[in-house]
Design a protein that fits this description.
Radius of gyration: 20 Å
Largest sheet: 10 strands, mixed
Oligomer: single chain
Helix content: 25-40%
Shape: globular
Order of helices and strands: EHHEHEHEHHEHEHEHEEEHHH
Distance between the termini: 22 Å
Structural class: alpha/beta
Strand order of the largest sheet: 7-6-5-4-3-2-1-8-9-10
Strand content: 5-15%
Mean pLDDT: 94
């Protein structure tokens, strides 16, 4: 099981689609839709011995450091790693990446770093100077000897559907592992049919260009780790049906700052998705099925339901959710159309089917 440990809810960034939008959303009467529990403290107060006992009772545990910004709690990270010997991952904005000693960094096999593309795009979304600081820290940890996988963690806002251009920029500066999330359907007040329809057209066209580039690049005997692409193609090649792609509520959970266990790290305050606590047996954690609204969808076995939070809260009207689903179907069908060409490349020995295999549930979005 994968466990996102929320070390703090505080962050040293004020990103437009996170901090700024969540401030605006206070005007929405969310309590009329769900029951909230806002009692968890800002910083993690979990007992390390209790955490260790819980983690050791899991057959194949993986810990993902999460926040807020987890690197605001470096001493807590070190304390956990000093006492629990399991695989580690981390999701971070990268601003303090250089402050964790290399002996700890190299025990974190995969690090997801928030960067949205080029300097203009990243700084516009995440604050002036963010791009240069993140890239400086990535270079610093590589120079210190970090050998793990570094994944660019993008957010695509509705103003800029140019996923093709931004992904190619990240590839050009050294990222070969990339994933993205569309900032859509997570806030009640920001639905605008005209705006999203325009975004949809541009985004889908950009996805088509990116899929074409990705498959053509395989002639160079490499498969770039664009997580939404490899995840879907891996399933298509294996004829494999998928549950919710992030693993939330079936193969992955979040541990709140007070030790309560929840289906998803962005749902830690929603009581309906509480699954247990550190005294629970991992095998007994509550499991959440695919959303009822997705059961009859023709791509649910590939999509898995996009997002538990999105499908449960239904913050956009149905027509808006259908537009989001169009982006998912377009992505799946574009990749499905390329499967014969990919199979031919595999048969010729130019690439291998193993190039599409990946670790599931540690954070990269497969369905944006």
């Amino acid at each position: 099981m994968h466990y996102h440990i929320v070390l703090t809810t505080k962050c040293n960034s004020h990103c437009k689609y996170c901090y700024e939008k969540s401030m605006n959303d206070f005007d929405f009467d969310i309590e009329s839709k769900i029951k909230l529990d806002l009692s968890a403290p800002e910083d993690s107060e979990i007992n390390i011995e209790e955490l260790a006992r819980f983690i050791k009772s899991d057959k194949n545990p993986v810990i993902i450091f999460y926040g807020g910004e987890p690197l605001l709690k470096i001493n807590k990270i070190k304390d956990i790693m000093d006492n629990i010997n399991v695989p580690y991952r981390m999701q971070t904005n990268g601003k303090l990446l250089n402050e964790l000693p290399i002996e700890y960094l190299n025990r974190i096999d995969r690090i997801l770093i928030s960067i949205d593309g080029n300097k203009e795009k990243t700084d516009s979304n995440r604050g002036e100077g963010t791009y240069n600081l993140v890239m400086k820290n990535v270079s610093l940890i590589r120079e210190k000897g970090y050998i793990g996988e570094i994944i660019a963690r993008m957010t695509i806002d509705l103003k800029s559907p140019d996923i093709y251009e931004q992904v190619l920029h990240l590839i050009s500066i050294g990222f070969s592992s990339i994933h993205w999330q569309i900032d859509a359907g997570f806030y009640a007040y920001d639905y605008d049919k005209k705006k999203f329809s325009i975004f949809l057209k541009g985004y889908n066209a950009s996805i088509t260009k990116l899929v074409d580039f990705w498959v053509k690049d395989m002639q160079n005997k490499r498969v770039l780790k664009l997580y939404p692409f490899i995840g879907i193609v891996d399933s298509l090649l294996k004829n494999e049906k998928s549950l919710l792609r992030c693993g939330a509520g079936h193969s992955g959970y979040a541990i709140r700052t007070d030790g309560k266990i929840v289906a998803c790290p962005i749902m830690t305050w929603i009581e309906d998705f509480f699954s247990g606590d550190l005294n629970s047996n991992p095998e007994d954690l509550k499991v959440f099925p695919i959303a009822e609204r997705c059961i009859n969808c023709e791509v649910n076995h590939i999509c898995g339901g996009r997002c538990l939070y999105w499908s449960h809260l239904r913050l956009w009207p149905e027509e808006g959710d259908q537009l989001i689903c169009k982006t998912i179907k377009h992505l799946i069908y574009e990749l499905k159309n390329k499967v014969p060409e990919i199979k031919e490349l595999i048969q010729k020995g130019i690439i291998s089917s193993k190039n599409f295999e990946y670790e599931k549930y540690f954070g990269p979005e497969i369905i944006p």
